[in-house]
Specification:
By secondary structure, the protein is an alpha/beta fold. It contains nine helices and seven strands; from the N terminus they run E-H-E-H-E-H-E-H-E-H-H-H-E-H-H-E. It has a seven-stranded parallel beta sheet with strand order 3-2-1-4-5-6-7, sandwiched between helices. It is globular, with a radius of gyration of 17 Å. The N and C termini lie far apart (about 45 Å). It comes from Streptomyces hokutonensis. InterPro entries: KR_dom (IPR057326), NAD(P)-bd_dom_sf (IPR036291), Sc_DH/Rdtase_CS (IPR020904), SDR_fam (IPR002347). It holds the Pfam family adh_short_C2.
Length: about 250
């Protein structure tokens, strides 16, 4: 039976790969993202789209109304929206503390708040039993991210997921987190990544290669399957062993 799948950040990278995986399995998909043109060009057969900033409560209310009209019940909720806050517009202030406040606020908003608002808005619509909530975190939650802001924002998803797993478990709903490492073919590093940094991150792995969006999408798809029905409150590492270091 076809399931209703909602994917934030569904227009590019991991979210887009996940969308293709679910559609290939016969599921109905709703893609969410900030850029309407990206969602419309995503090329996911039969997918619905809804554009807006999920860090805004009013936008998320609109998403909830749209989901109620189009789907009714949500079988799988995938949180792939987020990203590198340093790629967002700068604070515009020359003050160092203003820059720190901006960096942390932006990263929290796009990586944590967006996921929490969408979850809370759709929580009552999750299928029971059998509903799935899946968060995309990062290796940075374990190894840091340079400034601390991005890694801290992703790490905040972990206790939230554990709390949700306890809350939703009696309804037959599982909640899990996937923590990717270096994934190529995403927008995380902007237009390009320095070759020296790319080589260093690949050396950190045990597999000797960068990850792909499909590596993460495959794990998300499995966690949403009946085979993972007794897996909940877990953080699954998809980083070629890089979280362990070299």
């Amino acid at each position: 039976m076809a399931r209703n799948v909602v994917i934030s950040g569904g227009g590019t990278g991991i979210g887009l790969a996940a969308a293709h995986a679910f559609v290939a399995g016969g599921d109905r998909v709703l893609l969410l993202g900030r850029r309407r043109e990206v969602l419309e060009k995503a090329g996911v057969p039969g997918a619905l789209t809804y554009a807006g900033d999920l860090g805004e409560p009013e936008v998320v209310r609109g998403v909830a109304r749209f989901v109620a009209e189009e789907f009714g019940t949500v079988d799988v909720l995938v949180h792939s929206a987020g990203g590198n806050g340093t790629l967002e517009p700068a604070s515009g202030s020359g003050d160092a503390l203003d820059a720190v406040a901006h960096d942390w606020t932006v990263n929290f908003r796009i990586n944590t708040l967006s996921a929490a608002l969408l979850t809370e808005a759709l929580k009552s619509r999750l299928a029971e039993p059998g509903g799935r909530v899946l968060f995309v975190s990062s290796i940075a939650a374990y190894r840091g991210s340079g400034s601390g802001a991005y890694g801290g924002a992703k790490a905040a998803l972990h206790p939230y997921a554990h709390d949700l797993a306890r809350d939703l478990g009696p309804r037959g709903i599982t909640v899990n987190v996937v923590a990717p490492g270096f994934i190529e073919d995403t927008e995380f590093f902007g237009p390009e990544i320095a070759e020296a940094r790319r080589e260093r991150m690949i050396r950190d792995t045990s597999t000797g290669r960068a990850g792909t969006p499909g590596d993460v999408a495959g794990t998300l798809h499995w966690l949403a399957s009946p085979a993972a029905g007794h897996v909940t409150s877990q953080v699954i590492q998809v980083n070629g062993g890089a979280e362990r270091g070299r």
